[in-house]
Amino acid sequence: MWKINTRQFEKLSKLVYHECGINLHDGKRELLQARLAKRLRNTGINSIDKYIKIIEKDSDELINFLDAISTNHTFFFREKQHFEVLQKGQGKIWCAASSSGEEPYSIAIDCLEKGFSPDILATDISTHVLRIGTRGVYSFDRVKQTPPYILKKYFQKGHKKWDGYLRVKDNIRRMVLLQRFNLLTDPLPTGIFDVIFCRNVLIYFDGITKTKVVNRLCQVLKPNGYFVIGGAESLNNINHKLQYVKPSIYVRNF
Ligand SMILES: C[S@@+](CC[C@H](N)C(=O)[O-])C[C@H]1O[C@@H](n2cnc3c(N)ncnc32)[C@H](O)[C@@H]1O
Q1: Which of 91, 148, 205, 210 has the smallest count of CB within 10 Å of its CB?
Q2: Are 18 and 56 contacting, i.e. CB atoms less than 8 angstroms apart?
Q3: Probe ligand 1: pick from 17, 64, 103, 125, max atoms within 8 Å of CB?
Q4: Which of 64, 70, 130, 211 gets mutated to test ligand 1 (max ligand atoms within 8 A of its CB)?
Q5: pLDDT tens digits for 188-224?
Q6: Which CATH number belongs to the domain containing residue 10 in this structure?
Q7: What pTM value is reported for the model?
Q8: Parent domain of 20
């Protein structure tokens, strides 16, 4: 088992903060240690110092490292009360930090149930979760909060080796475009969005990074468009121009 020392932890947490804004404070040391150990095993690299040197100059392995350390927990219809912002007439929705696709596919289903079919851009920094989202195949535990009639209407049941899995139907998959996007650094997508979901990712950022991300995303939010954050998150104590509507929901009125 590789043990990470303080110098290595500081170097890696600085790199992670710089690359994707995630704040790995000392309490996250064990998590970093465990995920790094797994990555070293998978790559066959036998020293942490060697690994640090590699990710400092190899952007492909840096992406794998960020994949390994990001927390991608999500499920279908998570915090579905937020979907009240989805309303007929909306044409473009951005699900930033979409993880493995459960969130944008839930949004697509909610919109279809309400009788409209917007284009949904789903982005995440992790290429690993984006691959899962593109495949659109999920185990039953991801859909625990999904009503049975929705499962029947929008999912296909797997058979034989796919027993226990469900696949999102093609009409839903076609509504969602999955792409890699770093909230901090990548050029903003073209176009302007009626709603931006940025849920359960701000929680990993400090105030400076949160401010930067929220203000960046607002540049592509339509006037009167909604900005939605996670239930455990808040925009208090950061500088932004959005107006509070109700918990987790803000509107751009500037
Ligand atoms: C906990 S998941 C949230 C998923 C989904 N939004 C939800 O609420 O269920 C957080 C996601 O944020 C992504 N993430 C972390 N830092 C990011 C960054 N700088 N840019 C884009 N995505 C990032 C992670 O890869 C992860 O998939």
Answers
A1: 148
A2: no
A3: 125
A4: 70
A5: 999 999 999 999 999 999 999 999 999 999 999 999 9
A6: 1.10.155.10
A7: 0.95
A8: 6-69
